[in-house]
Every structure is written in structure tokens, then in C-alpha cells.
Design a protein that fits this description.
Structural class: alpha+beta
Distance between the termini: 112 Å
Helix content: 25-40%
Mean pLDDT: 77
Low-confidence stretches: 32-46
Order of helices and strands: HHEHEEEEEEH
Largest sheet: 7 strands, antiparallel
Radius of gyration: 27 Å
């Protein structure tokens, strides 16, 4: 007859093992809040882009009107916001992407507030690019990436300044 090996495990050993697992799980979960943010910050384009800020020597209402005209000149469609809200959101047209069947679109988010250090309006702009890898078969399933150092913000700021400047006959 074969010999059987019996493992003796007292009830206290099972409790200690369960307690150790619970403590280990608690330690792992305690750091979970910070993990996604730290990983996202290290991935290029994964974190939130720093907004670009410029001050214009005009009141918020005039600056907003100039910004809206700049959007039209850039071919963007105003989607949400207003001068009373101090916010503007707009989208570019959908353009073909780099790969067959893909597409991309730019979004612009601007905030307007009185300048802190004198007259004028501070305009804060953030831009993102929405990319759909397969817009033919999976419309609306895009990836949004924050744009950093894009010349589109410079074009927007230049358009605002140009629309604020008095027009010569």
C-alpha cells in the first residue's frame, strides 16, 4: 500500500496566511490611485498638455468676438460656449488620416478671463487631435491625444490679434 503524506496545518496558520494576503492586497491597492497618472505622464501624448496662454489688450467680449472670427478663418466650427461663460469650444473638419480608412480631427478649447495684472483679456488654449484608425468600419471610436507645441495655437492667437487690430481702409 502506498504511503500517504499528510500535511498538518493548524487553524492559526490559515488565519495568518489570509491576514498576510489581505495586508499585501491592501498595500498594492493603496498605490493604485497614483499609478495610472504616473504612467500616463511618462507616455508621450498620454498626459494632459500644458495650455498656452496669451493676453490681448481688449475686453473679454471683443476678444471673444475676435476669437470666433479667427475660428471661421481657420475653418473650425464653433460648438459650445459664449462670452458670458468665458469659454469656447470648436472642432475642425474631419480629414483623411495617414492610413487608408483612417481620419483625424482637431478640437480647440479656449477660456477667456480678465487679465490678472492689468487691462486686457487672458486667453488659455488647449488643443487635442482625435484619430480614428478605422473610421469606415468603426465610426466614432477614436483616440484623443493632447497636442503640445502645435502651430495651430499660434495661428489662432495671430487670428485673434489680427481681428482686434483696427482695419485700415
Amino acid at each position: 500500500m502506498p504511503t500517504r503524506i499528510h500535511f498538518f496545518r493548524p487553524a492559526a496558520a490559515g488565519f495568518i496566511l489570509s491576514l498576510n494576503l489581505a495586508i499585501l492586497l491592501g498595500m498594492l491597492l493603496a498605490g493604485c490611485e497614483q499609478v495610472p497618472e504616473s504612467i500616463r505622464e511618462r507616455v508621450p501624448g498620454g498626459g494632459a498638455a500644458q495650455p498656452r496662454v496669451q493676453v490681448f489688450q481688449a475686453d473679454p467680449k471683443a476678444t471673444f468676438a475676435a476669437a470666433k472670427a479667427a475660428l471661421d478663418q481657420m475653418g473650425y466650427k464653433f460648438t459650445r460656449g459664449g462670452p458670458a461663460q468665458g469659454r469656447m469650444e470648436a472642432m475642425s473638419e474631419i480629414s483623411p488620416g495617414d492610413w487608408p480608412g483612417s481620419s483625424h480631427q482637431f478640437s480647440l478649447h479656449a477660456d477667456f478671463r480678465p487679465a490678472a495684472d492689468g487691462p486686457g483679456t487672458e486667453v488659455t488654449v488647449r488643443m487635442t487631435e482625435v484619430i480614428e484608425a478605422d473610421s469606415t468600419n468603426h465610426p466614432g471610436q477614436g483616440t484623443e491625444n493632447a497636442l503640445t507645441d502645435t502651430p495651430l495655437v499660434d495661428v489662432f492667437f495671430h487670428g485673434i490679434q489680427q481681428n482686434l487690430s483696427p482695419q485700415k481702409p
